[in-house]
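Input record (one chain):
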Amino acid sequence: MLHVYTGNGKGKTTAAIGQSIRALGAGYNVLFAQFIKNMEYSEISILKTFPNLHYLQFGNGCYITREPGINDSELIKQGLQIIQSQIEKKDYKIIIMDELNIAFHYNLIIIDDVMPIIDRFKENLEKDLIITGRYAPTRLLQMADLVTEMKEIKHYYHKDVTARLGVER
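The corresponding structure, as predicted from the sequence alone:
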């Protein structure tokens, strides 16, 4: 099954983490891969303590203050290859590709780069692939079995409240 969590609201990664916790609680293996991001957020510290969770990160940092470059694209493509090899090694109930939609949005990769991974999960009712991030491409939305859009109604960032430890980071 293919899940997509997208939209401009808060909670996409949080929803994916919730799915991870549920699978871990059932004794399943989870592969959690973050793209774009390059720092360890508070939730990652706790996720790494679960023996059935494999955490990977493929990012040079967000694009709020910089434009993505060729190194970003190469890192993401390397990440996809590593995920593909991890799928061959271990039986994962859930694979999360956090912020991958941002990579599509900036044309760092195309859907065809991810199709070998998507194809392994698309028709399998026993395994789930979760892709998060704003700007999910239309083709991905059409393929998905579940799409959730997080919509910002109001956010305290607009009042210059920065990311708070334990809440946003």
